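quick one before i forget lol
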Amino acid sequence: MKFGSEAWVLKKREEQRLEAAQMKFLRPLLGITKLDKEKNQCIREKTGAQNIVKEIKQYQKKWINKRINVLWKKREHRTK
């Protein structure tokens, strides 16, 4: 679900759709239906899953920092 997400620019609607898809995957694992009106946070706690949008944003920050470090190392190497 996160493949290629380092380059995604997420709008609010896309974030909502990702969260909905995550819940669609997690609910059947616990045998919960939407009619049970279980809160998403409770479902994530029971499965040990993190909010998919938060995961993607953390992944993007990590990816960007890694790219910045590579660029700085190349720049330092050229100046020596």
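fyi The helical segments are 12-30, 40-47, 52-79.
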